[in-house]
Amino acid sequence: MTEATKYTFKDFASDQEVRWCPGCDDYVILRSMQKALPEMDVKKEEVVFISGIGCSSRFPYYMDTYGMHGIHGRAPAIASGVKLANPDLSVWVITGDGDSLAIGGNHFIHVLRRNLNLNVILFNNEIYGLTKGQFSPTSLIGQKTKTSPYGNTQPPFSPGELALGAQARFFARIGGNTPKEMTQLFIEAEKFQGTSLIEVLQNCVIFNDGCFTKYTDKAVRADKQIHLEHNKPMIFGKDRDKGLVLNGLKLDVVTLGKNGVTESDLLVHDAKEPDPTLHSMLVRLEYPLATGIIRAVDELTFEAREEALTKEVSANSKFNKVDDLFFSGETYEVK
Amino acid sequence: MTTTIKNPQPEILENVVIRFVGDSGDGMQLTGMQFTDTSAMFGNDVATFPNYPSEIRAPQGSLYGVSGFQVHIGSVEISTPGEDLDLLVCMNPAALKTNLSALKAGHTIIIDTDSFTKKNLEKALYASNPLEDGSLNNYRVIEVAMTSLTKESLKELQGLDNKSVTRSKNMFALGMVYWMYDRDMNHTLDFFAKKFSKKPIIAEANSKVLKTGYFFAETLELIPNSFTISPSKMPKGTYRIINGNQATAWGFLAAAEKSGLELFLGSYPITPASDILHELVKHKHFGVKAFQAEDEIAGVTSAIGASFAGDFAITTTSGPGLALKGEAIGLAMILELPLVIVNVQRGGPSTGLPTKTEQSDLFQAMYGRNGESPLIVIAASTPADCFDWAYEAARLTLEHMTPVLLLTDGYIANGSEPWKIKTIKDMPSITHKQVKGGNPEKWNVYDRDAVTLAREWAIPGTKGFEHRVGGLEKDKTTGNVSYVPENHEYMTNIRAEKVERVQNSIPDLTTDFNEKGDLLVVGWGGTFGSLHSATKQLSDEGYKIGHVHFNYINPFPKNSEEIFSKFKKIVVCELNNGQLSSILRGKFPDIEFSQYNKIQGLPFGASELTQKFKTLIK
Hints:
The structure holds two protein chains of two kinds.
Chain A: H1 26-36, E1 47-51, E2 66-69, H2 75-85, E3 90-96, H3 97-103, H4 105-114, E4 119-124, H5 159-165, E5 170-175, H6 179-191, E6 196-201, H7 213-216, H8 221-224, E7 225-228, E8 235-236, E9 242-247, E10 250-255, H9 277-284, E11 289-296, H10 302-316, H11 322-326, E12 332-334
Parallel strand pairs in A: 1-2, 1-3, 3-4, 4-6, 5-6, 7-11
Antiparallel strand pairs in A: 5-11, 8-9, 9-10
Helix pairs in contact in A: 1-6, 3-4
Chain B: E1 11-13, E2 15-23, H1 28-42, E3 45-51, E4 66-74, E5 85-90, H2 93-99, E6 103-112, H3 118-123, E7 140-144, H4 146-154, H5 162-167, H6 169-180, H7 186-195, H8 200-219, E8 227-229, E9 237-243, H9 244-259, E10 263-267, H10 274-280, E11 289-292, H11 296-308, E12 312-317, H12 319-335, E13 340-345, H13 362-367, E14 376-379, H14 386-400, E15 404-409, H15 410-414, E16 416-420, E17 468-470, H16 485-500, E18 511-512, E19 517-524, H17 528-540, E20 545-550, E21 552-554, H18 560-564, E22 567-574, H19 579-587, E23 594-597, H20 606-617
Parallel strand pairs in B: 1-8, 2-5, 5-6, 6-7, 10-11, 10-12, 12-13, 13-15, 14-15, 19-20, 19-22, 22-23
Antiparallel strand pairs in B: 2-4, 3-4, 9-16, 14-21, 18-20
Helix pairs in contact in B: 1-6, 4-8, 6-8, 7-8, 9-10, 9-14, 11-12, 17-20
């Protein structure tokens, strides 16, 4: 039994009053995280939450761990510094769709590219909440917001597609109203060695209420989502009778038992496949919406590459102390 | 080759200024550095300044593709790379055209005549050949067919391609200059042997051409005599030639080792600061984490993250980069975390003059953030003292728990001079504020040291000290978010007072040459050498003139006003439109400051300064 398993979720709740709007999915994410941490092999003092700006970014204040509420969009860069300074830490980036995909887009793609062993939770609510309702980079075409009163004319990013394009090794997606699955995803993200990105479809009750209801509502969830599991056939539906097959360059939904389709005809999810083609298709799929771990490809982390290189350079270096460097090479005496 | 007897008694000079100029591919920087190192090892004081175009490979022979390296050597104290040239070594017409005006009348130009072709003359926009039209009559011109002589000397060397042959002509020029100034060739010969140990044929070619140039000059009747510059009287010790960027990087290495912390650099390439990054990426063996980030903002924010996690963190940049980092520096300031920001200033605004020097970022350093966000601001003044000021920046930020902005500039960053090597044990101690145990129940994030007002630095991994910090205003004790009006005013004031209290841990200013008198020359940062030598000259002539130079700018040393009060007139000299003057007037409203400013991307020249000072004294 490791020391970490002794914690309960209360150990991770700070004394600060939580100030999100009543009914916000952010509460679900917070509680899921507080429940997930005791299940991870980490010590409380080694956990660090770094956030940017936005509703989601208040998150670190509510966690009784080390934390920093940074500046808009920069959390991945701050977190990279934390991780490089001390690779033993469990580092979590808390960000939203505006924070990570608009003002912080550059840091978002580069943190994924580098593959430091840290976790990014993207609270996607397709709107700017804290600034009171402007469209975000994930808002839909036609969406009416404070800054698009006649409908949004800027096409949205798909966070998952952007992430895969930026070479994300780990991408998962989860509805903001499924705490059990979310907790499990957080645990899996921490286990994964590399940058883990989790997109949470987070309902904003004030400015974009119901934006994901067609996928996340309890009544339709089982029929509209496919919760992917590695090495398992791609089955979904309330009656577990639907599945995915590859038809040319497209994913098709089929019904088990119809036209002779059996479970063995279905695709089997391989999250570890380095080729992102199928993962891309799953990310883009609108019916059913793919949730769970879509991609989890093992690759050397940035800090592991750095550490190996540092060892090698140190072993071959003639410098132990800076004095050795200062007196090396072209020096001369004045007598 | 016939041997001639070397002039047994070279003429002795006190100092000499030489400029090597050619096309950006002609190897002028290497040539200049070799002459510098050789002279320094001989015992001269030296100062150098490279001058190269921002185009990496500008069209050959063009005016804007000219690259130059100036070196000033002396048996006396040398504090600038010099102004008027005693010798100009010129590899093509464009170099002649762009540099001739710096040469003293009657002094010497060495010219590679092979490069004075019709095509090159046209590229340099010469209507007629200056070698033939009499326009060089006021100078002593030594015309040498350097390219052909170089080719001739290498014709028997098998396996050498044409490009390598032509490229070594700079060594012919260097050989000639070595003879003229009575220098030993051994240092450069050793350099070739080492540098080209895997390409012995290149080493041999360069060595051969160097010697050929040397013997050519010796034999040449056009050069009537050689000169020598005796060793200068520098303090005893072990020296090396160092430029400002290298010294800055090494100062941080020293501070990291002395403080027992690992050094983290978050940076993004930018001229003229990149060399600090280039230097620090080499030193993984010292635990240095030099992180080339995706942009300037990630450079500083990664450093803030590293600082939060317990590293000694720095970020390096130049003016435009500092503008991008502004918001994040404000974050570091309100978090009260240690962080050093280095701004190697260049000509601005906007992209401005990337390869030229200027001091126009002082306002940005002082005020370039939203809200009330004072920083400790200090400036280095010579290439070698960048080491000390980088070290001091580290000491201040780690002991006072607030960011320090260190200003250098392109002139001292790329200029070089002898550095009397310091050892770690001789450096002042650095006591950082990291929490090492204790009772977390009795600890608050924003508890302060009674003397310095610095808070303690509890880093992730320290059990029981878990806490949150952020860019929102925070409660004066717990660090929790606070919108209480009085608390905000209290925190604003205490962050400012913390910077003010740095006055207690810095030395008083001292005045050079005269402690009272008719004129006080005031400067800051990289203009030290020019102001020092101009003031010295007038002081030697009997003028009651003193020089005071600011390295600590925020806060100013305690005795600043007292020093000002001892002179009848004060002139603040800056390579900007009067930024320090303006700050001084705000701080010392009863004192009258006159100004001397220059915004040409160039350092001050001694004669413009002495002229101005004389007018003011009258």
